[in-house]
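Q: What residues go here?
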């Protein structure tokens, strides 16, 4: 239980674990995890036992978190095939945590946009992109209707997060329709952060892969909780492209500008989009070699 109080300092979105309260204390069998805001609970598919030395089982906990999110994404992605039939998207998202719901939505958007491009390129339907634009508008409309009803705060934040990203995706499709884009290799499409389900060596199932321009990475499955996401503006898009291309060249990025304009938040948001743990610390003149050493000790 003493370690449970410190878990929030080790993970980006975790606050603590839910323990099976059977037998004498301390309880060591975890059933699931709570998000940092405390509003979201994600059950583990199998029980996790905290045993052995703490540095070992915390590493095992990280693997458990990753495998739980991978399994949840598999189930959510499979269930998206029912969107237009038994279970529409605005009710489908009740069954999954916010991160999984959003990621599955982005994967489906990438697949459906790619399909629209294929129809245009093959001469199947000249209005494929227009038709898909109407689908995106209707899906946002359903979410807006739902968010106006009486919901729990956790579910409301989840739906608003998905609407935030949906609006950007709708605007992207609208732009494609306006400029009559029919080539899936065009920069306007390549410069978007896209998500695919791909086969990975040594992985039994397909896992998520993120792509932007010529940069590709595997999704990292760091649990980020139900924390909401920033509105994506054209400037955010440019920041994403610049930072990811810097990573592609094994370099760093340095967003510059006045205080409070969102440089740190944009970088953190990119980390959330990629399921990556982002560490923020302040490099003021108060910083010395001891505090730098503390950071590296914590990271390692």
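A:
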């Amino acid at each position: 239980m003493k370690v449970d109080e410190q878990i929030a300092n080790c993970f980006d979105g975790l606050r603590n674990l839910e323990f099976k309260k059977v037998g004498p204390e301390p309880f060591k069998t975890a059933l699931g995890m709570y998000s940092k805001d405390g509003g979201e609970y994600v059950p583990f598919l199998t029980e996790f036992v905290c045993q052995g030395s703490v540095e070992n089982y915390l590493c095992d906990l990280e693997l458990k978190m990753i495998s739980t999110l991978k399994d949840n994404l598999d189930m959510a992605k499979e269930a998206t095939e029912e969107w237009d039939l038994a279970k529409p998207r605005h009710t489908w998202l009740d069954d999954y945590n916010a991160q999984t719901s959003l990621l599955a939505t982005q994967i489906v958007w990438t697949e459906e946009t790619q399909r629209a491009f294929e129809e245009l390129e093959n001469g199947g339907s000249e209005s494929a992109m227009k038709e898909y634009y109407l689908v995106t508008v209707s899906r946002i409309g359903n979410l807006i209707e739902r968010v106006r009803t009486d919901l729990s705060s956790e579910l409301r934040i989840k739906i608003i997060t998905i609407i935030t990203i949906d609006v950007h995706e709708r605007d992207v499709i609208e732009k494609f329709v306006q400029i009559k884009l029919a080539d899936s290799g065009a920069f306007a499409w390549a410069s978007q952060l896209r998500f695919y389900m791909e086969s990975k060596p040594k992985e039994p199932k397909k896992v998520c892969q993120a792509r932007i321009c010529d940069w590709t990475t595997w999704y990292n499955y760091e649990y980020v909780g139900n924390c909401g996401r920033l509105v994506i503006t054209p400037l955010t898009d440019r920041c994403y492209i610049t930072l990811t291309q810097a990573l592609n060249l094994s370099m760093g990025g340095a967003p510059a500008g006045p205080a409070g304009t969102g440089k740190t938040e944009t970088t953190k948001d990119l980390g959330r989009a990629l399921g990556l743990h982002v560490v923020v610390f302040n490099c003021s003149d108060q910083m010395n070699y001891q505090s730098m050493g503390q950071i590296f000790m914590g990271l390692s």
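A: Context that may help when evaluating the design: The chain has a mean pLDDT of 90. The beta strands are 14-19, 29-35, 41-49, 194-198, 207-212, 215-218.
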